[in-house]
Specification:
Number of helices: 1
Helix content: 25-40%
Number of strands: 3
Order of helices and strands: EEEH
Shape: rod-shaped
Radius of gyration: 36 Å
């Protein structure tokens, strides 16, 4: 809910009120003994408050970028797996050759 600033036209009292945008404007001063009319002030608005871990450029990457990143990371893991399997197969083939 937004916060609105009000000023009493009679006593000059400034105050804030949290109201829905659909609520009617306040008309009476909240100070005891003063029933003067109040006028809503023009507000400057509120700043943004970002809560959480943050917002990064990588949060909204395109699908093509994600696919390329997957492709770049995938070969490095498969290369190391295939090199270990090829070295073990060459060892087994060498053992079978010497056994013949």
């Amino acid at each position: 809910m937004p916060t609105y600033d009000y000023e009493c036209q009679t006593c000059g009292h400034h105050f804030e009120a949290r109201q829905s945008m659909k609520d009617p404007h306040l008309t009476d001063c909240p100070v005891e003994g003063c029933a003067g009319p109040v006028k809503r002030q023009i507000g400057a608005g509120a700043g943004f408050i970002f809560k959480g871990t943050g917002f990064y450029i990588t949060d909204y990457r395109s699908d093509s970028y994600k696919a390329a990143a997957k492709k770049d990371s995938a070969p490095s893991s498969t290369t190391s797996t295939s090199s270990t399997s090829s070295s073990s197969s060459s060892t087994s083939s060498a053992a079978s050759t010497s056994a013949s």
